[in-house]
Amino acid sequence: MQTRIILAFLGMLFLTACQEQPYFQQSYSFKNNTWAKKNNPSFTMDINDTSKAYNFILTLRISTGYEYNNAWIYLNSKSPNKEFAREPFEIKITDEKGRWLGKKTGSIVENRLVFRNRKLSKPGKYTFVFEQGITKKVLYDVLDLGLEIEEAK
Fold first, then answer.
1. Are strands 70-78 and 84-92 parallel, antiparallel or unpaired?
2. Cα dihedral angle (14, 19, 21, 26), rounded to 10 degrees?
3. CA–CA separation, 75 vs 86, rounded Å?
4. Which of 39, 69, 75, 111 has the fewest CB atoms nearer than 10 Å to its CB?
5. How far apart (Å, rounded) are the C-alpha atoms in residues 128 and 102?
6. Distance CA 145, CA 4 (A)
7. Strand, coil or helix: what is 68?
């Protein structure tokens, strides 16, 4: 019995050790689960290899008390040569019948927005700043926002 437990543990360790780690991964937790208009999470990273394409994964985690069926988010990007871009994105939270579209665990719903095969023009430091784009000054029941960057396959 003890041998089976050890073998199972080693098998799980082997499987998790073989998974490729993201190039960048960071999240921002909102104080008191509220996202105020003036609160703009920012992520900065160095991208040195511009010959590769990357997948950008935005994760928004909310609680089931979130009162809207979507979330509008502005992505503000600053490249190493100081070029700025601003893009609006909609994250669908529920369908037309009010059913959660993201991965729901208990009272937490995780929604992901994936931008596949994005190439960056210059190597260096990139900054991504997120603004909430809902007309309300404060969004309640927003837990955190995460950004993950991985090499595209």
1. antiparallel
2. -90
3. 6
4. 69
5. 23
6. 40
7. coil
